[in-house]
Specification:
The chain has 94 residues and is an alpha+beta fold. The protein has three helices and five strands, in the order βααββββα. The protein has a five-stranded mixed sheet. Strand 4 and strand 5 form a beta hairpin. It is globular and about 35 Å long.
Length: 94
């Protein structure tokens, strides 16, 4: 069995939103990203599929009210993860 790699990319919108976010959110995202790389289903992340207008995407908790929404797909032996948007629960799900 071939080893599977995880490639992580970021949309322009995600990078722009992250840049505008408070410093504590930037730090929290970095920590959650490390956890996500080690175990994408760690209970702290609350990684779950979304429905409605975000159907086909997944969400993970960055902090109490902040979420990062991402998509993922397989490419041969590589799993591609693209972080699409980041924001507070009310900003994303209004």
């Amino acid at each position: 069995m071939k080893k599977r790699f995880k490639t992580i990319n970021y949309s322009r919108k995600f990078l722009k939103q992250l840049k505008k976010s408070p410093l504590e959110i930037k730090i929290a995202f970095r920590k959650r990203l490390e956890l996500f790389i080690e175990n994408s289903f760690d209970p702290q992340l609350n990684n779950h599929p979304l429905t409605g207008r975000f159907s086909g995407y997944r969400s993970l908790n960055v902090s109490g009210d902040w979420r990062a929404i991402f998509s993922e797909y397989e490419e041969e032996t590589n799993k591609i993860v693209i972080f699409e948007v980041i924001g507070t629960h009310s900003q994303l799900y209004k």
